[in-house]
Each structure stands twice: as structure tokens, then as C-alpha cells.
Amino acid sequence: MFEKVNWGLVIPMANEEQDFTPFVSALLKSLEKIKSGTVYFVIDRASKDKTLELSQDLSKRDVRFITVWAPENKNVVDAYLRGYREALKNNHDYIIEMDAGLSHDPAILPAFLSELLKNYECVFGSRFIKGGSIGDSPWKRRMLSSAGTILSNVLLGSKLHDMTSGYQGFNKETVQKFTDYHLKSTAHFYQTELRYLLRKRRQIEIPITYNAPSPRVSDSSIKNSLSVLYYYFIKRLKGQPVAL
């Protein structure tokens, strides 16, 4: 069904040495079923272990995996965007983003592709719709994800069930739009900012399970999230809402 689909998968990688082998094994299993796809591992100076070497070695053995060394990145948003731009250079029709470390299940990739092939411009993974769930994340992180969705929907007028998930896919034209836009987020709010900016595009949510425990959200990340939320809220109050 997907053999001739030209799509790319963007995965920022940092300090993944311990989980590298099981993650790649699960990813390979999914790619074999799909029978297409190019994977972009984006690695920068935030990674202190052997993730870069392991990724480069895999790229030498399997042409489906491209290692992108991006030492210029200043934050995780730069990593995502660098991956998207690399995928755009290779002219993929569809580009999916996911996290490493098995926090996102590679087995769900066909579901994203199926919806993109139905002419949806955005396919968002959701933990808060029927069939979706959050696994063993700390309760504070669960509360932050849920509260972030509620707060964003109230203040920005968005309507998605999950405004903070990082498992998502887009068509090429949509990716070009947001990579050309100067995003305000530097950390976790990036996912919410994208969903808000793309709210007028043809979109659908599909259920996902978030499996791995999440790292602590830093104070600077929360501060940036509130700052970006306030920016778009004020724009909306002034009758100047931004949409891509």
C-alpha cells in the first residue's frame, strides 16, 4: 500500500545510546512492513554519549537512515526544523515527526501515512482521544500536558484534544509553510504553537500511546511556553490571529 509513497521521518536524537538498539529494531520492523521511507536522525551538541557514532554507523549500513549532524542547533526546536529542512531538500511528499527512545511507537507510522494519503494536510497523534493513552510519565508531566491542552484551547480558540503531543505528520506544502515562519517557541510549546498556527488546515487526530517517562520540564521551558501563549493570545484579542 505504501511502497511508492515518498515520505520522510524526522527524529531528533540526544543521549540515546542505551535505547538505540531496541528503538532502531522497532523502527526497522515498521519500515519493513511499510516498504518505503527515509529516516533523518538529527543530532547536535546536546548529545554527550555515542548516539552520533551509532547513527553514523547505521547510515553506512542502511541507506534508509540519514544522520544529520547539526552542531549549530541552540535548542530542540532547531533540531526538529533542521530535520524538516533536510527532508524538504529531498522533496518528500509527506514528512512525519516522532521522538526517539520508544516514547512514540513506530508501529503507528502506517496510520499516519494512511491519513496523509486521504489528503489531510496535518495528522496529529493524540493521547486524549479514544484509543490513546499516556503510559508511565510522571503525574506532574501528565497534568502539564492535559492542562496545556485546556489552557491553549481556551485562550487561543483551538479545538484539538491534544495540543502538546510530538508525534505528527504533514504534507510537503504545510511543512514548507511553518519552516519559512519564525516560530516563537524554543522548547516544549513548539508542538502547541504548530497546532495553533495550522488550525485552519485539513487535519485529523489519531490515537497514540505515549510509553516512556518524560524528563522534567525546565523552568525556562515553562517560561517560554507562557510567553509564546501570551503572544498569540494578545494577537487574537487584537483581532490579529496568525494562521499558516
In words, what does this structure look like?
It is built from eight helices and nine strands. It has a seven-stranded mixed β-sheet with strand order 3-2-1-4-7-5-8, sandwiched between helices. Helix content is 42%, strand content 16%. The chain has a single domain (7-237), classed as Alpha-Beta Complex (Spore Coat Polysaccharide Biosynthesis Protein SpsA, Chain A), CATH 3.90.550.10. The radius of gyration is 17 Å and the shape is globular. By secondary structure, the chain is α/β, with parallel strands linked by helices.
Query: Helix- and strand-based class?
Result: alpha/beta
> How many domains comprise the coordinates?
1
SSE succession:
EHEHEHEHEEHEHHEEH
How do the strands line up in the largest sheet?
3-2-1-4-7-5-8
* Helical amount: 40-55%
The average pLDDT score comes to 94
Tell me which CATH architecture applies here.
Answer: Alpha-Beta Complex
Number of helices: 8
Assign the CATH topology.
Spore Coat Polysaccharide Biosynthesis Protein SpsA, Chain A
CATH class: Alpha Beta
Strand content: 15-25%
What is the CATH superfamily? Spore Coat Polysaccharide Biosynthesis Protein SpsA, Chain A
